[in-house]
């Protein structure tokens, strides 16, 4: 059950910016950090981060006192993160490409050097300041993958303002919720996005979201396609009119280490998405450190993470980590299959990517298209291949390793979360012998604990349980914006003194970790994290729906699919029209990336006599294991389950 380990090719072990070159180095760093976390992280941060006032203290506070308020890192430090990401590089890397961008159409390329990016961020910051943006205020960024999205994030940071990027696939309703929740007075968007040859009406969706929202003072609009857009005089401002003429010098607003850098909304098991708050000093330290260490970063790397800046992967490993390290970071506007399934490897050949970071769902989808799309391009530049977002099945891992990487590259399966800020359990490219399907070992500072759900006690040695982490690390989210109690209730109330991740996990006898997936009501569809509660709330928008229960089920390509059980109101009848309407309502409430795979009408939901929905039964049916329903003795009405099992037949695709 331990699986095979793979050798690390010699070329991955030579000449990098990472201190961890071997598994002994990892062990030493891990133990050093465990023995003296403050000393370890103070050394790291003084080395990697440009501080105006270098910190002298590490961690203050802990999980046991989390109710009273967040813990802090580097409490007496002062900085502005853009000085680490931009200013410090001007002298030695001014002409180095900071952002390499490829648009939706192959070959539509832009390059911004560190000098260009610094000037553009300063211009945008000056423009935002002239529009009235101040330190601490929130800015929603609702854009596609254009360089200006990163510029907008950094411009906020330059002013000490707090950005909240909303993925461009989200609906007007989801956008409005986020604008309201964080009290944003500014929105930055673009006329339209471009993806897979189609336009995405970002400005029109913004207008819809802001209808009647008088809290938003200004909307800054980048022209990407030139498509027609509505215009609200006095509120809307064109990016090119405000930014292009602004001064390319903007003094950086110096803030305390634990000043918020951004809010990012993420789905949980209950209620609306939570706005997790990441801070300047700790987050930057952790993303810079893990980026160079895990990927074995070198000065001449062409580093490509093909995520979207709307998710945490884009924040940490397209923008902040790579720019802090002075890397060339790639931004990609299109999809893995546009114009065909060779797009990634065509770009590897044209741009010479050395590090490539994507999600298992993309790997599975591309593997299914056959090897020719890969092998017809030259991939000899590749050295390290990463994955993130969901468990990677060994078949996909081996295809990535053998076919994409020609057996030459090392694979880093990186486990982490919006909450962790950066990579927490992962191979370190030059050090850890990987095993297909395992995220392997914890990063320094991460102390995993597997809790036994039956006894509520930690499991020692090999075993399987609920993944918790014992101590804070610098990159950890500090709170939920405006609702610290919710942060405490979600993450710290399951097990006293531990952070609970929501994932299940197995530890093998080599001390390697194997993430088994979410144990709560979060589903992971194509690497997108979604709450079943959000789907249920969306379905209930339709007046024909009386009750709805949504669960995940294993899906060959997407990792998990979405299965919705729907109870109609009395007098309503199921029809194709109704089915289409329900698909539409989910899309309009959540967004285009949210789609129910199976909509099953049921006469009722399986409930206990006290009225609690027995989701375990619904999961089993959706998984195709109706023969393993377990204990059903507490069911109020067993006939409902028979009908559900019968109705599910033939829906498993
Ligand atoms: C970075 C990101 C977090 C959830 C997490 C897991 C799952 C992420 C892996 C993984 C197995 C991995 N942030 N997850 N990486 N599962 N192996 N390497 O994805 O907040 O959007 O999602 O994603 O369930 O809890 S996220």
What report would you give on this structure?
With 653 residues, the chain is of the alpha/beta class. It folds into three domains: 23-79 and 414-516, Luciferase, Domain 3 (Luciferase, domain 3), CATH 2.30.38.10; 81-335, ANL, N-terminal domain (Rossmann fold, 3-Layer(aba) Sandwich), CATH 3.40.50; 526-648, ANL, C-terminal domain (GMP Synthetase, Chain A, domain 3, 2-Layer Sandwich), CATH 3.30.300.30. It is 31% helix and 23% strand. Helix 12 links the parallel strand 16 (302-305) and strand 17 (328-332). Residues 266, 311-313, 388-391, 413-418, 439, 501-503, 515, 517-518, 524, 529 line the site of 5'-O-(acetylsulfamoyl)adenosine.
Give short descriptive properties of this protein:
globular; binds 5'-O-(acetylsulfamoyl)adenosine; 653 residues; 31 strands; seven-stranded mixed β-sheet; Rossmann fold; GMP Synthetase, Chain A, domain 3; 3 domains; Luciferase, domain 3; five-stranded parallel β-sheet; alpha/beta
CATH class annotation of the largest domain: Alpha Beta
CATH architecture of the largest domain: 3-Layer(aba) Sandwich
> What's the total count of β strands?
31
The CATH superfamily name of the largest domain is: ANL, N-terminal domain
Write the layout of secondary structure elements.
Layout: H1 10-13, H2 23-35, H3 37-48, E1 59-60, E2 72-73, E3 78-79, H4 81-85, H5 90-93, E4 97-102, E5 109-113, H6 114-130, E6 138-142, H7 147-158, E7 162-165, H8 172-182, E8 186-190, E9 193-195, E10 198-200, H9 202-210, E11 218-222, E12 236-238, H10 239-243, E13 255-256, E14 260-266, E15 274-279, H11 280-295, E16 302-305, H12 312-324, E17 328-332, H13 343-351, E18 355-358, H14 360-367, H15 372-375, E19 384-388, H16 394-404, E20 410-414, E21 448-452, E22 457-458, E23 463-469, E24 479-480, H17 484-491, E25 499-507, E26 513-518, E27 522-525, E28 528-531, H18 532-539, E29 545-555, E30 559-568, H19 576-589, E31 598-601, H20 615-622, H21 638-648
Helix pairs in contact: 2-3, 3-11, 6-7, 8-9, 11-12, 14-16, 20-21
The structure holds 5'-O-(acetylsulfamoyl)adenosine (7RM).
Residues 266, 311-313, 388-391, 413-418, 439, 501-503, 515, 517-518, 524, 529 line the site of 5'-O-(acetylsulfamoyl)adenosine (7RM).
């Amino acid at each position: 059950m331990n699986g095979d380990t793979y050798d690390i090719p010699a070329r991955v072990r030579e000449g990098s910016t990472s201190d961890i070159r071997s598994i002994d180095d990892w062990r030493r760093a891990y133990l050093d950090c465990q023995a003296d976390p403050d000393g370890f992280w103070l050394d790291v941060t003084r080395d990697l981060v440009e501080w105006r006032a270098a910190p002298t203290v590490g961690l203050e506070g802990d999980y046991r006192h989390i109710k009273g308020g967040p813990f802090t890192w580097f409490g007496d430090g002062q900085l502005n993160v853009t000085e680490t990401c931009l200013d410090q590089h001007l002298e030695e890397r001014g002409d180095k490409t900071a952002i390499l961008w490829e648009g939706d159409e192959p070959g539509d390329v832009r390059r911004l050097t560190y000098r260009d990016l610094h000037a553009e961020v300063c211009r945008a910051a000056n423009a935002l300041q002239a529009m009235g943006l101040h330190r601490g205020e929130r800015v929603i960024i609702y854009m596609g993958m254009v360089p200006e999205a990163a510029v907008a994030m950094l411009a906020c940071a330059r002013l000490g303002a707090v950005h909240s990027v909303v993925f461009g696939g989200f609906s007007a309703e989801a956008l409005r919720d986020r604008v309201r929740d964080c009290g944003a007075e500014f929105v930055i968007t673009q006329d339209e996005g471009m993806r897979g040859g189609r336009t995405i009406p970002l400005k029109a969706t913004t207008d819809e979201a802001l209808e009647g929202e008088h809290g938003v003072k200004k909307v800054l609009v980048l022209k990407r396609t030139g498509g027609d857009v509505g215009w609200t005089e006095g509120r809307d401002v064109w990016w090119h009119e405000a930014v292009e003429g602004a001064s390319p010098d903007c003094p950086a607003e110096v803030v305390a280490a634990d000043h918020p850098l951004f809010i990012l909304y993420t789905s949980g098991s209950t209620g609306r998405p939570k706005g997790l708050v990441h801070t300047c000093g700790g987050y930057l330290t952790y993303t810079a450190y893990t980026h160079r260490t895990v990927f074995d970063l070198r000065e001449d790397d062409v580093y490509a993470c093909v995520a979207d800046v709307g998710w945490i992967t884009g924040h940490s490993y397209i923008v902040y980590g790579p720019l802090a390290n002075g890397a060339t970071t790639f931004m990609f506007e299109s999809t893995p299959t546009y114009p065909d399934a060779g797009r990634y490897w065509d770009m590897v050949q044209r741009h010479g990517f050395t590090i490539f970071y994507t999600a298992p769902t993309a790997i599975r989808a591309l593997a299914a298209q056959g090897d020719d799309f890969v092998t017809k391009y030259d991939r000899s530049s590749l050295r390290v291949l990463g994955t993130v977002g969901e468990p990677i099945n060994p078949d996909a891992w081996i295809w990535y390793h053998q076919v994409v990487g020609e057996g030459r590259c090392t694979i880093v399966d990186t486990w982490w979360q919006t909450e962790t800020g950066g990579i927490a359990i992962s191979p370190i490219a030059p050090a850890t012998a990987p095993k297909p399907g395992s995220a392997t070992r914890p990063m320094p500072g991460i102390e995993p604990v597997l809790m036994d759900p039956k006894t509520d006690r930690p499991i020692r040695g090999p075993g399987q349980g609920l993944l918790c982490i014992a101590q804070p690390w610098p990159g950890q989210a500090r709170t939920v914006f405006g609702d610290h109690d919710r942060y405490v209730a979600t993450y710290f109330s399951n097990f006293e003194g531990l952070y609970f991740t929501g994932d299940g996990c197995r530890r093998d006898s080599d001390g390697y970790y194997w993430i088994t997936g979410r144990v709560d009501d979060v589903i992971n569809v194509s690497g997108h994290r979604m709450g079943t509660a959000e789907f249920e709330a969306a379905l209930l928008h339709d007046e024909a729906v009386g009750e709805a229960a949504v669960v995940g089920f294993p899906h060959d390509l997407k990792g998990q699919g979405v299965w919705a059980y729907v109870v109609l109101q009395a007098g309503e009848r199921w029809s194709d029209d109704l089915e289409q309407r329900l698909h539409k309502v989910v899309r309009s409430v959540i967004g285009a990336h949210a789609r129910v795979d199976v909509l099953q009408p049921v006469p009722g939901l399986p409930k206990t006599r006290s009225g609690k929905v027995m989701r375990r039964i619904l999961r089993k049916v959706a998984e195709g294991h109706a023969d393993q329903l377990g204990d059903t003795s507490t069911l109020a009405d067993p006939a409902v389950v028979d009908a559900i099992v019968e109705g599910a037949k033939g829906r498993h695709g």
